[in-house]
Each structure stands twice: as structure tokens, then as C-alpha cells.
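Query form — protein Adenylate kinase

QUESTION: What is the three-dimensional structure of this chain?
INPUT:
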Amino acid sequence: MSKRAIIMYGPPGAGKGTQAELLSRKMNVTHFDTGRYIESLVHSKEAGTDPVLKQEQINFDEGKLCTPSWVLNIIEEATRKIALTGQGVVFSGSPRTMYEAFGEPEEGSDAEKRPEGGLIKVLEEIYGKDNIIVFTISIDEASSIKRNSTRMICSVCGLPIMSISDANICGFCGGPAKKRTLDNPEVIKVRLEEYKKRTYPIIKQLKQEKYRIEEIDGTPAPYKVFEQILSSLSPKIHS
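ANSWER: The C-alpha cells for Adenylate kinase are given below.
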């Protein structure tokens, strides 16, 4: 089976990271969690003295998307490194803007068009258009706010802590739980607006350009959502 590049889209709390992690284990592909990667950079020690990282930290903690040109550069570099390993890749929520996806400036931006395109062109170059699959996981706004407001993640491995387990301890590694700076209702509302205005247009463009788009209901339990994703992929994945 050809190596694939899979993109998980959906509003905050849709379960993109969980589904990407499940797929990475099932298909033996690399899960590139863009949000976690960016968070590790903007909350690193270097962010205290690096003016670029400091500004991106402000954007990140306010629920705004980070500067598209900066994000595209770091994600493209990481993607090419993953490709060198010979593995496929699954992204959770990336690329997030038209510039990151296609190298196209957003409305009102003074950025110039990127001649070589964005991450989608990079993925085409590496994996081929037919091997790029986009999943859109849908939940309503109320569910997004509720899920994110109560979400806890492990401070060690970063995995979500399910409500059925001890709310203070990770069931995977035993690490202590923490709450992300992004997960409060007001920030979540900002993130929802960012998704609608800046990320959803990417999906519309991908549909117009005849990329494979699979629509998934994100309201059931994660394992049920995962069953939907698996059923839309090749039967070979079930073996």
C-alpha cells in the first residue's frame, strides 16, 4: 500500500489529535501534532529571549493562529524530515490557513503569494495527490466549548485524560494532569472563529480541486469515530 498523507480537520474539541494518534498506531504512520509542536516552541526557554517566539506565544495563548509564514516554514521542514524516514504522516489540524495550505495570502494580509505553494504542494510532491486524504470531523459549537473547557491532558506524554479515569492521573504513563492555556471558554470562542474564518476555507478549496474529502460525525465516543474513519479507508487497514 502506498504511503499516505492524512489531514484531520475539525473545530476545537472535535478529537483530531485523538483520531490521528489512533491512526498512527493502526497504520504505523507518524502523527505530527502541529498544535503540540508549536506549543513546545512558544513555551520553550528560548521564547523568553527570542522576539519571534515571544510574539507567537502571545498569539497562541490568546487562541489566535500563529503567523502563517512562520508556521509553514517550520511545518514544511518537519514534514520533509518525516518523509526521509519512509513513513506516511497524519496531521491533526494542519495546515490551518490558506497561506499554510496553498501559499495564498489571506484577505487583508500584506503577505505575498508564495511561488512554490504551501504544504499541500509539498505533500503532493512527496506522496502524490491520490494519496492525500482529508477527514473533516464535525461537532457543534456547544460540544466544542464543553469538551475543551473540561479537557485535561497528561503533562508528561500529552495524551488526553478520559473522564472515566482518575482526573488527575494519566492512564497511559501515570503522569500528572494539566490544563492547557487554550482550554477556557473565552479562548475557545476565539479559536472557533479562527477555524470558521481561516481554516474552513481550505476545505472548500480542497473540494474544488478534487482532493479526497471524508466527512465524519465527531459526536460519538472516540472509538466509534475511529470506526467511521477506518471504514472509509482501504479494507487492508483492518487486517
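ADDITIONAL NOTE: The longest strand covers residues 132-138.
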